[in-house]
Amino acid sequence: MSDHIDFYFDIISPYAYIAHKKILKIKDVKFKLKPIFLGGLHNLAGITAPAFNRYKMKNMQKDCELVAKKNNISFNWNSKFPINSLSIMRGYLCVKDNKKEEYLNSFFEAYWKDDVDLSSAENIKSLLKKIKINEDQFFNSINNQNIKDNLKQLTQEAFEKEVFGAPTFIVNNKVFWGQDRLEYALDEVKNI
Question: What pLDDT digit, counting tens, does each position of 60-70 carry?
Answer without folding.
Answer: 999 999 999 99
